[in-house]
Amino acid sequence: MAKIRTLVVDDSATMRGLITAALNRDPEIEVVGAAGDPFEARGMIKALNPDVVTLDIEMPNMNGIEFLEKIMRLRPMPVVMVSSLTQAGAEMTLRALELGAVDCVGKPTTATGTAEALAEVAEKVKTAARASVRTKADAPATPARRGGAYLPSGDVVAIGSSTGGVEALLTILSQFPETCPPTVITQHMPATFTASFAARLDRASGAKVQEAVDGAPLEVGKVYVAPGGATHLEVVRSAGLRCRLVAGDPVSGHRPSVDVLFRSVAQAVGDKAVGAILTGMGRDGAQGLLQMRQAGARTVGQDEASCVVYGMPRAAQEIGAVEKQVSLSSIGQSILDLASARR
């Protein structure tokens, strides 16, 4: 099996060396070059034809966002962004994911963090190599009007996503009106990025989108995004339906886990729920979505053609958790239709 040919782009010689060494330790990856700035990288892309590029966001002469825009316009290819774990870094990373970067990894800041981040970057590169690269031109157009056909029905919506989920969730929530059903979301994302991501979704949606906090009541017109990092997001009954943040080990390889969220919705909400599983690598969410369907909830999965990575939806489809598959451009309205169909 051919190795994944990877180009490392970072202005720090130390970081280039660390990333290169970490990637070369993986038997499935071969680093074919390392560039210190976008101009050097441009020549290497032409000469070496890599399968994947890891790209630093903050560089001299031309930042990573500007270079990514050029890559996606002239030679679309899988790109993994390497970003500082700051608010500014988070906002730039989200912009990169909107432009077509497949995934992101936080730049390590401590010795412990270095080992964890370098192990993660190899997994991200392998995922990127299998991804369907989507440029801005490929992305579904944001609807001019946010769906007004929905009236509150008492249903709750639960959504799970991973690689490619930034674009997918922006597309879906741009179709949500101010009266959307209470919606809970688990998106696999570094801890420092989720607050900025919730704010970005809030600007795109008719609904109020916020990072979930422990004990927050689920209310019509509000969307709650699981914080990355130390906890799982659950829905519980306690004087109504509420968010609960629970510390614990990763489940299905992730914290927060989509499986944990979906299982809690199956138990707390039952047949008054709609579940949607979106683009992402692996199986997180498949079993939880099956429990939702068995509890009487309506369920949808993103179809293969519109996924960046058709992993999580495929796993859910294979075990019978998905009632119907829908293209990304149609999922938002499909969720609203299912949530309002039983008023």
UniProtKB/TrEMBL annotation:
PTM note: Phosphorylated by CheA. Phosphorylation of the N-terminal regulatory domain activates the methylesterase activity.
Modification type 4-aspartylphosphate: residues: 56
Keyword Cytoplasm assigned: yes
**Keyword Oxidoreductase tagged:** no
- Domain called Response regulatory: residue spans: 5-122
Task: Identify the main location.
Answer: cytoplasm
| Documented EC number(s) | 3.1.1.61, 3.5.1.44
Q: What Pfam families does the record tag this protein with?
A: CheB_methylest (PF01339), Response_reg (PF00072)
Q: Which family does it belong to?
A: Belongs to the CheB family.
Q: Which function does this protein serve?
A: Involved in chemotaxis. Part of a chemotaxis signal transduction system that modulates chemotaxis in response to various stimuli. Catalyzes the demethylation of specific methylglutamate residues introduced into the chemoreceptors (methyl-accepting chemotaxis proteins or MCP) by CheR. Also mediates the irreversible deamidation of specific glutamine residues to glutamic acid.
Q: What is this protein called?
A: Protein-glutamate methylesterase/protein-glutamine glutaminase
Q: Which species does this protein come from?
A: Caulobacter zeae
Gene name of this polypeptide: cheB
